[in-house]
Amino acid sequence: MSDETPAWRPTVWMRSLLATTPAPWPLGRSIRSAVTIASPVLIGALTDHAVVGMWISMGTLLLSAGEHALPYRARFRQVTVSAPMVAAACFLGALSSAPHVVMIIVMAAVAGTSGVLSGYSGVLSIATMQAVVIAAITIGVPAARPYWEPAVLFIAGAALYASALAIEAAVNRLRPQRDSLVSLLLALAAVARAQAAGNTDLAAERSHAINALDAFDQMTIAGRGLAGGPTTRYDRAARVSRAADQLLARLLAYDADRERSAATASRLDDCVNALNHRSRPPARPSDGTLIRLAMLEDAIWGDSPRAVALPPAERVRLTLPGPALLASAGRLSLCTALAYTAYILLPIAHGYWIPLTVALVMKPDLGSVFSRAMLRCLGTVCGAVIAVAVAVLVDGPVVSGLCVALFAACLPWAMARSYLWQALFLTPLVMVLLDMVVPHESVPDISEARVATTVVGGVIVIVAGYLIWPATRHAQMAGPFNDTLAVLGQYAHDVAVDAPADTVSADRRAVYRRLSDARTTLQRTLSEPPPAGAEAWAWIPVISATERVADRVTSAAASLTAPATTPSAAELSALADELTALEHRVSRRDVPHRAPTPPDRADLSPDPAIRELADELAHLRSLIGRDGATRSADSASLT
Prior knowledge:
Blueprint: H1 10-18, H2 27-46, H3 50-65, H4 72-89, H5 100-118, H6 122-140, H7 148-171, H8 176-196, H9 203-226, H10 232-251, H11 258-276, H12 291-301, H13 312-316, H14 323-345, H15 353-361, H16 369-393, H17 397-417, H18 419-437, H19 443-467, H20 478-496, H21 501-525, H22 532-559, H23 567-582, H24 608-624, H25 628-638
């Protein structure tokens, strides 16, 4: 093992499992969540229409629990997709009177379909999960009949939620993502002006720019980790971060041209002004600015100078689901079938919470299945204790409504912290909400049933969705990593032969998108028990080294002039061949292992960009290793 490969330890796993993310209090979301969730059920309880209020509150609760810190446009898009899909799912409650076999088969098919759709869009991932959840509720709650009523009331809740969201968007002028990007461009412009002025000490400007880049990068990674399923927004943000880093490196170079730096600073000001006015910057000058600034603008606005628009048919074409997505959907379908079987056979009150728990936990695109199951159970137990304490202390619909508002206000902050905190606040919120609708049923009894059904659902997920499938207990990085190397090799080849700008740009986007997804997958897998968690730790330095290789290829693309006719192009082509050859050194189940690697012949290249690329490529080869048997043995030692 390499000294730079972190060793897996149980304490490290527990810290990863229980880790929380520092999060500021989202005041606007908290107020909106409290008002939209608590007011319908409170008004309903005071006017003897508790069930009506409960269904409206359930709609606002599901939408609030599915909301993340995204731009308002993306949040409205989530509402418009989720609301009709969830309303339609209410009619699946008719399965409660169907033969049990029919119920199990239909809901397993619905869950499997939702699992496939989740692989195409983060919006669909959240919407399908909410649809399966509401289907479980309408099947298990007799008060849901006739099923058109909860469907209509859910639409009413969605309208209330969207109205409150529109008010917040009109009042709140803060846009965190845009403001963070503006701060980054301003910091880069300050570095460019200092370089243009001939300053020899750029420490202050460099520090400010690095801090701005780190802040933007952290927001990007945090948002990507929270997003359910693929999301183009954070793929674009990752490309912006990479391009900004490359531009900063060029501005800080010892041979940076003062005139080009001045032109770059002026152009960055134009970009900032365009972002502040939600428009596009004026036409890009033909010369005078740095090449890497053009790459940054292309990452922000997606308008490469020689970009060729794809035909409409190619833009909308959907690919068939791959084996990994189908396998994930199949496991979700199996767990759902077992959950409804348990709901039918086990004498547990509120047994519909078993398939509800499976629907919430068994979503691999939202994070580690094992970790979510563990955290869901732990959070539910602690939340049930809180709910019992609240039931003892409060009495009456007004006080109960205030408790619902309090828990609802804490929910957005808890969601940003961790899944454990989310379950901790969501559990008493749902229990107090049900207690207001069905006051004759004691909260301790509801809490006992809630804990029992959550544990049963968690056991189903862990056993049937995780333990019995050997593939799920590994990091599953070798295959995607080989695919990334293939795309990276193609990227380097296209740079070497001076391929059209739109081709090189597409290659670059594909490489960084795959690397971003790999980084997110590793972050989620760290909390898995061995061998998956151990393998994730072993893969971290490999992915980091691959990111640096990609950066060096991008640097070579920006520095080479007429690349197809220079000696550097031949050297870059040879290094691209090395990247392609590396693809065959990692089998589908290998874990990386450090092995000594001789230096590259390109180390002596007169081109510094080629030398840096050769160094990083040699380091990557050393991390991957050469002996598959040795790697397998080392994999066993990790566990």
